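[step 3/7] fold_predict: job queued, chain A
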Amino acid sequence: MRVSVNTVHKWVHGVSRPREDNIRALAGLLQVDEVWLALGRTPTPAATGANAGADAAHGAALLVAGLIEVRGGRVTFASASQDVPHFTANFRGDRFDVIAVSPQTASGEALSFVVPEPVGDCRVMAVVAKEHGPVAVLDITKAERHNFGGFSVIELTRDPEGRLHDAVGAVIPVQQEIA
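[step 4/7] structure written:
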């Protein structure tokens, strides 16, 4: 890799972040996972074995799927060997694939979500829970994503009125709220 000492200094001190190609190169050089290097967290392993479907689904997928079914839709979970989508929904005459995520990091008014790629035509639904407040489900499909190869990161910030915005300032509307 060829980067300046000044660039490395900015990375180390949090002034800037490496570009996607540099994250990938650094991860290969250091023999570490790209998600861990980009966010400092170990990625959640995909479900394996014959125990597919809802038994292998994580909490965000189960909550979003449950809300769809409670409102009259039908959900079919992906097989254990399939990373994306988490499930397919049939709701009010529409059929769509869903990737459900919850925040991987939360600091102050900022939330970061790791989204498995490729997203394709899937809807990306986020489950956000406040410490002492309601749980909200957001459609973050159109939010600005930073792609890192096998995954992307969506960063949202909360304004003083409590609304969430993506990296380009677009407001992310709440789809469902559970008190």
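[step 5/7] annotate
The two ends are 50 Å apart (CA to CA).
The longest helix spans residues 59-70.
exit 0
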